[in-house]
Amino acid sequence: MEAPTRDRKPFQLRTNLDFAEMSKMSKEFADVNQDIEDCEAEVHRLQSHIMFLQNHRQRLDEYKTCLRSLMSPIRKLPNELVLRIFDCACTINDLTTGKLATMPALTISCVCTHWQDLAKSTPQLWSRIRVNLTAMRLDRPEFPILEFYLDLAQQLPLTVEVLGDKLETLEPIQAAVCATLGACSDRWKELIVSQPTFYKALMAQDSRNFPMLDALTISNFGFRLPGSLDRFHDAPRLHSLSVLSFPLGKLHKSNFPWKELNVLNICSYSEELKHLVEAPSNLKVLCFCEWEDGHYKPNSPPTTAPSVEALSLSVNSQTTHPKSENMMDVVLTSMTLPALTSLSIDRLDIADEYQLDWPKETLEGFLCRSSCQLTTLSIKSIPMSDSDLIDLLLRLPSLLHLTIDDSKVTTRSPITTRLVQNLHAFRYRGKSFISPVMVHKLQSLSLTFSGFGSFDDRTFVDVVSSRWYSRGYPHTSEIGVNSLRSVVMRFLNRDVDPGIYSPLKHLEKDGMRVVIIAKGKVLQSL
């Protein structure tokens, strides 16, 4: 009898080991590991290639930037136009900060070789120099940047500003800087000095030859002796003087060319001023800056200055003078300016609140007495009611340019919806009579509003639109209101809806200059 046969069972782990199967599985396991390693290697290769491509793209972007720079429109401009742009950009070079941002001529020359060549070949870019003696480093024996600028300025007339805090004596390096600038006095075009010590050091060489000097500004200190400015007797081109104080009652003892001045900026007022303004002269611009220690005394009858065309009043919140000696009241009460066309009133210390009342009656009396044709009015940072401003504008039918800025005015801002409505060119709105049309000849309007919300944008747009007429419109004389040509509206603390102002874009395309700025950003939708 044959032994019974058992069926062979499939391979099972730990039972009935099949070494052939084990070998096959081991090979498959090795193949899987190899595939994993190949995948890892491919991943590393691809990641490395991605990094290469990213770096390559960055290089291409840099190259693209270079190409775009080479293709920029400014490179297509003639050198003459580029230099005019440079000239506008290089207002003053402050050499004592050590920062390129304050030295535009040097900044421009660092951009590229072409600009460097242009800048170095243009001496006027290097001829406007500011030095702050109290900000400069005193541990250095020399100040080579000044010599560098003077060399590149060649022999062109210089604008020199020597500023700083009050010092009793100068350190050697400070005195050396003043001596270097003083040696160039025959090239001074404009001189600004802030302290008596600096002024004395600049004049230490006793120079009396100023053939190029156009403007002289001596701030923060005044003169007591009538001969203090006699050294400028031979300054044939000097037309502008800014000084804290001067004994105007003794002008007959002064050899300064007072009658040649076109612009006088002074920080005091007294009856003696009539000796200057009433005499035949070329004085066109008269500026008064209120100084805490200034001297302001009214005079009667008022002094008439027949040649003055522009009056500027800069008031001070910190003055301790009684109301009867308030600078703005004193000047407006004590002067008659029949040729006046421009009036500017602003504040020096906008950090402090201005408490004085708007001199409504005093200003009205001044305008009535002067019988002048005012074309430009600018009021900045002065609190006043909208009704006072409206009353003032109703008295100025000849006004062409109006600027109102209520920055730092916490109460009594004149910029209100009522003011804007009264600037409308139509006397009737619907069935209601608004008011007489103000400032019929107005050509430019600039408003700066510091409020947060109480401004009617739609009314403003409507007012601007009402004062616009196309250049080809034949009946503007019949309408009686001139076309507005420029509008600038600045909102310091509020955003605006661009859609509300979008209708003005049609006026801009037709020729009106329209600028709307909200929180420092210009609306791009116009």
Automatic annotation (TrEMBL):
Q: Which Gene3D superfamilies match?
A: 1.20.1280.50, Ribonuclease Inhibitor (3.80.10.10)
Coiled-coil ranges from the UniProt annotation: 22-56
Its keywords, alphabetically, are:
Coiled coil
Q: Which domain of life is it from?
A: Eukaryota
Does the keyword Mitochondrion feature in the UniProt annotation?
Answer: no
- Listed InterPro entries: F-box-like_dom_sf (IPR036047), F-box_dom (IPR001810), LRR_dom_sf (IPR032675)
Q: How is this protein named in the record?
A: F-box domain-containing protein
Q: Which organism is it from?
A: Rhodocollybia butyracea
